[in-house]
Amino acid sequence: MKKVTIRTIAQKKSKGEKLVMMTAYDFTFARILDEAGADLLLVGDSLGNVIQGQSSTLPVTVDHIVYHTAAVSRGAQRAHVVADMPFLSYHISPEEALRAAGRMMAEGGAHSVKLEGGAEVAPTVARIVQAGIPVMGHVGLTPQSVHQLGGFVVQGKTDAAAAKLLADAKALEAAGAYAVVLEAVPAEVAAEVTEALSIPTIGIGAGVGCDGQVLVCYDLLGLNPDFKPRFVKRYVDGYGLIRGAAEAFAAEVREGSFPTEGHSFHQDPKVVTDPEDGKLAALYGG
Is 252 tagged catalytic? Predict the structure, then answer.
């Protein structure tokens, strides 16, 4: 099993092969999504919404990202793990950004980092790349700037806005970014940017013309019934499945039908008298 690297990612664009990126926040989901064929696993600051229950991504800290990235890195055997740089972790100075990115690599086990913004963050991208840390860019709708943008609205709808978006993407490429996320961008604009760049684009709400696509895993699994943006496709009613399983367990406990004999421990001489060789393994089916 060959690990996905930034070289692999670049080759996929040149070959016309689509990139698959999904978010992951823990070991178990990382393992599942990795085995499902994800090329990249993004430890997104979206964990503020789906893990912490925050109304935005702004409360997420570097410590949070490092913690979750370490868990994801242990579960990913093939996929390239990308750590999201959270709000204010790269805005104060390139040196401070480098320290934060370094923690995500050294402590979190990330293979690269992602940050939001265009030409204004290009010097920071260049500084991080110069230190040997791969950087993924992110333009269009940038959730960390949601208040400045006036909400979660489509970007690049006017000719001037589309030209700026293209200039921002090119600035990131020139600074050394290996890929760029295009979020909430008109499909024709995203296709134009994709054609103009030599690095891959990964779209979310940006049409099929991008070099790859990304979705939050909780969204594609249908784990939040209240979140229904147009760009999300739910592949399963995860919320209903999990709630149904939990309700079935609760009902069986209350009626006394769980645990059955097959789900209970009984005295077994080997389990009781063999404390050194597999006592816990025997108890838990190992």
Answer: no
